Amino acid sequence: MKYVGIQTQQRRNNLRSMLLLTLFPCLVIGLTYLFCFLAVHLGLLGEASGEAAWSTYSVNNMFIQTAPYALGGVLLWFAIAYFSHAQIIRNASGSRPLERKDNKRVYNLVENLCMSQGMKTPKINIIDDDSLNAFASGINEKSYTVTLSSGIIRKLDDDELEGVIAHELSHIRNRDVRLLIVSIVFVGIFAMLSQICFRMILHAPRTSSRRQGKDSGASIIIIMLLALVVAIIGYFFSTLMRFAISRKREYLADAGAAGMTKKPYALAGALRKISADPDIEAVEREDVAQLFIEHPGRQAHGFLGGLGGLFSTHPPIGKRIEILEQF
Questions:
Q1: What is the CA radius of gyration of the chain?
Q2: Which of 16, 30, 108, 135 is the most buried (most CB within 10 A)?
Q3: Average pLDDT across the chain, whole number
Q4: How many CB atoms lie within 10 A of CB 51?
C-alpha cells in the first residue's frame, strides 16, 4: 500500500469532510424546493393547461414561504442539541465522571498528552463495562470529554492506552467531535420529519373524513405521502454523508495519534485488542455508537454492507492497522 503521510491525510480528509458537511444545508433547501415543486404540480393535475404556465411562479412562491420554516426548524434543532447533547450522550452510553483519586494513571496519560500539544485537559468519563472501547465528545472546551470503558483501562498497557487516548484527543484537536455532532443533528432532522409524516398519514383518514370529505382526505394523504417520501430521501442521503464523515475522520485521528505519541505500533496493538471485544452493552443508539473508536455492535452486513462499506460508520479496522504500521 502506498505510504500516506500525516499532513497529506489531514489535508485530504479535511477537504472531503468539509465538502460532505456543506451538503447538509444544501440537502435541506433542495428537498424543500422538491416538495414545493411536486406539491404544486400535483395540484395542477387535471386542470386547464393554461394554468400550468403559472406553475414555476407558484413553486417559487410556495418555496419562499416554506423555506424560512424549514431553516428555522434546523436552527431550533441545533439549539436544542447544543445545550443538551452532553447529557444525552452520557445517558445513552451509561458513562459517569472519573475522579482523579479513582485512577491517577489515566489522568497522568491524558494530562501529559495535552501538555505536549498545548491543549486544555478535557473531562474524563468512564463506562463500567468490561469490553474495550472509547470515544470523545463535545462541541467546545467546556464540554470536550474523553470517555473510556473500564475494560480498556484495565486490559491495555500504558503505551496502548496512551495511543487510544491520543486518538480521542486528535478528534478533539481536529474538531471531529463537533463535526460529527453537527452531522448527527442533521440526520435527526430527517428522522423526525419522517416520523411526523408517518404519524400524520395514520391519523389523516379519520380526521379528513369527518371534516372535509373523502376527496379532500385523499388529497391530504397524497400530499403527506409525498412529504414522507421526501423526508425518507433526505434521511437516506444525509445518513450516507454522516457515515462517510465518520470513516474519513477515523483515519485522520489514527494519523494524529501516531504523530502525537510517536508510537503508531502501540495504537495498532490497541486496535487489535479492541476489535476482539468492542461491544458496550449500554449503547443502543446508532448515533452515539458511531462516536466510539470502534463501532460497538453489528455493522451492516450482506448486500448493503458490501456496497464498499457505504453503510459502515468506521473503516475496516484491519486497514487502519495496516496504515499505522507504515509509519
A1: 24
A2: 135
A3: 79
A4: 11
Calculated CA dihedral for residues 312, 315, 319, 321, nearest 10 degrees: -120
User: CA end-to-end span of the chain, whole Å?
Assistant: 12
What DSSP state is assigned to residue 292? B
Whether residue 168 lies in the annotated active site? yes
Reading the block at residue 231, the C-alpha cell is: 423526508
Q: Where does the pLDDT of residue 278 fall: very low under 50, low under 70, confident under 90, or very high at 90 and above? A: very high
Does 84 or 117 have the greater pLDDT score? 117
Degrees, nearest 5: CA angle 67-73-76: 140
Active-site pick, 47, 51, 99, 168: 168
Using the CB atoms, write b or e for 108-126: b if 16+ within 10 Å: ebbeebbeebebebbbbbb
Q: How many residues does the chain have?
A: 327
Cell of 264: 503508531
Q: Are 132 and 279 in contact (CB under 8 A)?
A: no
* DSSP notation for 205-219: HHHHHHHT-HHHHHH
**Domain boundaries defined on the chain:** 6-43+55-324
CA distance 281 to 303: 26
- Tell whether the model's pLDDT for residue 309 goes beyond 60: no
Which of left, alpha, beta for 262 (phi over 0: left; psi -120 to 50: alpha)? left
Whether 260 and 166 have beta carbons less than 8 Å apart is answered as: yes
Closest CA to 86 of 119, 117, 122: 122
Q: What's the CA gap between 116 and 103, in Å, rounded? A: 21
Pairing of strands 145-149, 123-127: parallel
**Of 262-271, 284-293, 317-326, which one has max mean pLDDT?**
262-271
